[in-house]
Design brief:
Blueprint (H helix, E strand, L loop, with lengths): L1 H13 L3 H14 L4 H14 L2 H13 L5 H13 L3 H14 L4 H13 L3 H14 L4 H13 L3 H12 L6 H13 L3 H14 L4 H13 L3 H8 L10 H14 L2 H12 L5 H14 L3 H10 L5 H13 L3 H9 L7 H17 L3 H18 L2 H24 L16 E5 L6 H8 L5 E5 L3 H9 L7 H7 L2 H15 L10 E5 L7 H7 L4 E6 L2 H9 L9 H21 L3 E6 H6 L1 H12 L21 H4 L26 H6 L6
Parallel strand pairs: 1-3, 1-4, 2-3, 4-5
Length: about 650
């Protein structure tokens, strides 16, 4: 009889009739004052009514009386969890699970509390336990994916999300998380393709549309990004970040009128003024419009951390190093993580310019430490290192079998292509901005189209490369070559006249494939002293190598592939040495044009570039060239890891002297 009454009271609670539930419980307690089930139901009713004091008192009374069981502890945890007291809720769930380890709901709720407490690794374990008990529970499956995502285990999270979005009833949130995972894994092309599919499944979804536009910008499809975002301009809910993306696209295609209109519209938004000012100042500075950036900086009313950082950056660009140092020291102690990271890199640059090398090294190290804490770089680094090792093995196998099917049946393939390769920070940006001024040259700036061809050919597994290459004939090679030509037309207006420079330093690892697809292509290898190039990578935020061990290891793997391929492939190759480019730029550019077969008379003498530079080197190519960039490593040798001396083999390989 009492159990029926309790069941009825629970129905009152479920239907929101909490006052009635409390009344009925009190009546039942008169009949059976020590009944734990009635006390528990009353505690839950009080919690639902919002009366946490009485709810906790009753739970405490049950515990004191020694009548707690795992069910009571679970419900007490749930009450505390709903009251946002996640620490106390965690303690109750731990007690509950000590009594009943196979209680899946408690593991799940414990995981939710751990996420709220930002204990993501513990949350992953909790959800794994819940799922091992109830493997078909879709909610636990999703919770585990979310925990992995929050713990920055993007590859693992992706495996769960991809199953969720391929389920019969996918939800948009899972799709969004999957796209973010792909972006964090640097699989931009896959993220792009998933965005397209998702927009068909969830047409007009604002966050997916925003992600799609962001990816288009990463892929340098500026006109597509504009076509995606422009229809939203007049909508009542056009997110600020989307407006930033649209303006960035306008800058890249240099649409002066639309830039002006959107900037005016943004500046009229008084509510978000500090954030908008910081974005605009940064964009203007990257576009080398320092005077306009300074003007906007002077008009900015609120000196936020972001704006103070921009001010310090402009002072640095104007060589006012001590002023920039004072501006930075005033904000870094209390600033947010993003400003702290950028500020630490800038402090490193300032101390470097002031010849204060120990301080510079300290700030660069701190910047990379903060950056590594923010991202899950280890997973990305391990994946890239493994990829390079596999490619090296695959090329060794190919060359041992003397597989020389370099598409000789199509002699014209690549006759108008120049691949500019090397290693990041080896001078490729300085090179391409100089060559881009020639009337018969168009530069394809750092796209991943060759990597996309490689991944498609290998079905995203480099282990398949040797076997696939051995099975291919001229028709297969021609098909991939035509697909590449078709794709690059998304980036540039090309009428198949003149030359295209595909500038992507890391295409070095795909040089074998490039040679097989485009036997007539010319190769420009950009070389720089390996200590200087590795040091410069460590000093850059956007390189994603966060300590010198990672930098040297990556350099070693890339150069190993380059040496092996160079020893076995007959390349139409020239090497451009960074130091020669710095010391005598005009002569070096003349040599390169001679190599390509072009006349210097069609090289524009006007200053500036055809387009906005979009690499970590933008500041350097917009500044005078400094001799201090040569042999810069000598200032930092005392801080290099001692066990990296084996890198000397690459110094000799590139014809540099070992000091």
């Amino acid at each position: 009889m009492i159990n029926q009454k309790i069941h009825q009271v629970m129905n009152y609670i479920k239907s929101g009739e909490t006052k009635k539930a409390i009344f009925e419980c009190n009546q039942l307690l008169k009949q059976s004052p020590n009944n734990t089930q009635i006390q528990l139901t009353l505690a839950i009713a009080h919690a639902e009514e919002g009366n946490l004091v009485d709810s906790k008192r009753i739970f405490g009374s049950i515990s004191v009386s020694g009548k707690s069981n795992y069910h009571v502890l679970f419900n007490y945890g749930l009450v505390l969890q709903n009251a946002n007291d996640f620490q106390s809720a965690t303690a109750q769930y731990d007690k509950c699970l000590a009594m009943k380890k196979d209680f899946a709901p408690a593991w799940n709720n414990l995981g939710i509390c751990q996420i709220e407490l930002q204990s993501y690794s513990r949350a992953v374990v909790s959800f794994q336990n819940a799922l091992s008990i109830e493997p078909q529970n879709i909610n636990y499956y999703r919770s585990l994916a979310d925990a992995l995502f929050n713990d920055k285990q993007y590859t693992q999270a992706y495996k769960y999300y991809i199953n969720l979005i391929n389920s019969p009833s996918p939800v948009a949130e899972d799709t969004i998380h999957t796209i973010y995972c792909l972006l964090e894994m640097h699989l931009t092309q896959s993220a792009y393709e998933l965005c397209l599919q998702s927009l068909n499944r969830f047409p007009g979804h604002p966050e997916i549309t925003s992600l799609y536009a962001r990816i288009l910008l990463k892929l340098k499809h500026y006109k597509k990004a504009i076509q995606t975002l422009e229809p939203l301009i007049n909508s009542t809910d056009f997110p600020l970040e989307d407006q930033f993306q649209l303006l960035t696209a306008y800058f890249h295609i240099d649409d002066a009128e639309k830039k002006k209109d959107l900037i005016q519209s943004l500046l009229s938004d008084s509510e978000n003024k500090p954030h908008i000012d910081a974005f605009l100042i940064n964009l203007l500075e990257k576009n080398n419009d320092i005077e306009q950036a300074k003007k906007l900086l002077s008009q900015s009313g609120q000196a936020t951390e972001e704006i103070q950082l921009m001010s310090a950056n402009i002072s640095f660009r104007e060589k006012k190093y001590k002023q920039a140092l004072e501006q930075l020291n005033s904000i870094l102690l209390a600033c947010n993580s993003n400003v702290a990271i950028d500020g630490e890199f800038l402090l490193g640059n300032i101390h470097d310019k002031l010849s204060q090398y120990p301080q510079a090294w300290e700030h660069y190290t701190q910047a990379n430490t903060l950056l590594s804490q923010k991202t899950n770089n280890q997973e990305l680094f391990d994946g890239f290192t493994h990829n390079n090792k596999v490619i090296l093995q695959q090329l060794t196998e190919l060359y041992s079998k003397k597989i020389n099917n370099y598409n000789q049946n199509t002699q014209t393939n690549g006759a108008n292509l120049i691949f500019m390769i090397g290693f990041p920070r080896s001078g490729t940006t300085l090179l391409e901005t100089s060559l881009d001024k020639h009337q018969k040259i168009q530069v394809l700036e750092e796209t991943k189209e060759i990597a996309n061809v490689f991944n498609h050919l290998c079905n995203n597994n480099p282990q398949n490369y040797s076997r696939k290459i051995q099975s291919m004939g001229s028709e297969d090679f021609n098909g991939y070559a035509k697909a590449y030509y078709k794709r690059i037309k998304q980036y540039i207006q090309w009428n198949e006249k003149g030359f295209i420079i595909d500038k992507m330093p890391m295409n070095t690892v795909y040089i074998d494939l490039i040679s097989r697809l485009f036997p007539q292509a010319k190769i420009i290898f950009s070389a720089r002293h390996c200590y200087d190039v590795c040091l410069s990578n460590f000093f850059q935020k956007d390189i994603h190598l966060y300590n010198m061990d990672e930098v040297f290891s990556t350099y070693d793997s890339v150069l190993s592939i380059w040496k092996l391929a160079k020893d076995h492939i007959n390349l139409d190759l020239t090497t451009c040495y960074y130091e020669n480019l710095i010391n005598n730029k005009q002569a070096e550019i003349q040599n390169l044009l001679n190599f390509i077969g072009l006349d210097t008379s069609e090289l524009s003498t006007t200053t500036g570039n055809k387009r906005m530079v979009n690499t970590p080197s933008y500041a350097q190519v917009n500044e005078p060239i400094y001799q201090t960039s040569i042999n810069r490593y000598l200032n930092y040798l005392p801080f290099f890891p001692k066990h990296l001396s084996n890198i000397d083999k690459w110094i000799a390989f590139l014809n540099y002297k070992i000091n």
